[in-house]
């Protein structure tokens, strides 16, 4: 497993932006696909975005397409999630997660991810 630490959350007004970061340590990061998930109060955890282990493919939930962008820098062992045009319904705890893979595809199923960060709170409110 890798150790993951998220940062960058905060309180932002509707329409605002944030950059969420996920710093990894412990294993060869380029062997891991990475995803972002979120969980709002009283709701189930949901997939947000994912990127394959070399950054050549990305996937997004329909609710965030065109507003969120996931990227990674394997030299720095980091994954970023740029969140733009935020809406109140984006309010949640955002989690970074990873799993080891030799392939270039990536799953959106949280059950496959075996490393999770502690989460960072994003609150969208006026």
Write up this protein.
There is one protein chain. Helices cover 0% and strands 48% of the residues. Strands 2, 4, 5, 6, 9, 10 and 11 form a seven-stranded mixed sheet that branches. Strands 1-3-8-7 form a four-stranded antiparallel sheet, with no helix packed on it. The termini are far apart. It is globular. By secondary structure, the chain is mainly beta.
Summarize the structure.
Helices cover 0% and strands 48% of the residues. The chain has no helices and eleven strands. A hairpin with a 6-residue loop joins strand 4 and strand 5 (46-51).
Helix-strand layout with pairing:
Layout: E1 3-7, E2 10-12, E3 18-25, E4 32-39, E5 46-51, E6 58-60, E7 68-73, E8 78-83, E9 92-100, E10 115-116, E11 120-124
Radius of gyration: 13 Å
> Given the C-alpha coordinates, what overall shape results?
globular
Mean of all residue-level pLDDT scores: 96
Overall number of strands: 11
Low-confidence stretches: none
- How far apart are the first and last residues' alpha carbons, in Å? 39 Å
| Strand and helix order | EEEEEEEEEEE
Structural class determined from secondary elements: mainly beta
| Secondary structure tally, helices | 0
Largest sheet: 7 strands, mixed
Strand content: over 45%
Oligomer: single chain
Helix content: under 10%
């Amino acid at each position: 497993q890798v150790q993951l630490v998220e940062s960058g959350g905060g309180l932002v007004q509707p329409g605002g932006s944030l950059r969420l970061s996920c710093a990894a340590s412990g294993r060869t990061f380029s062997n891991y696909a990475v995803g972002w998930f979120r969980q709002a109060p009283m709701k189930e955890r949901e997939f947000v975005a994912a990127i394959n282990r070399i950054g050549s493919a990305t996937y997004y939930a329909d609710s965030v397409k065109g507003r969120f962008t996931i990227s990674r820098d394997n030299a720095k062992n980091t994954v970023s999630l740029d969140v733009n045009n935020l809406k109140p319904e984006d309010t949640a705890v955002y989690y970074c997660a990873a799993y080891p893979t030799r392939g270039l595809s990536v799953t959106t199923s949280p059950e496959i991810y075996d490393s999770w960060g502690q989460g960072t709170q994003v609150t969208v409110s006026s």
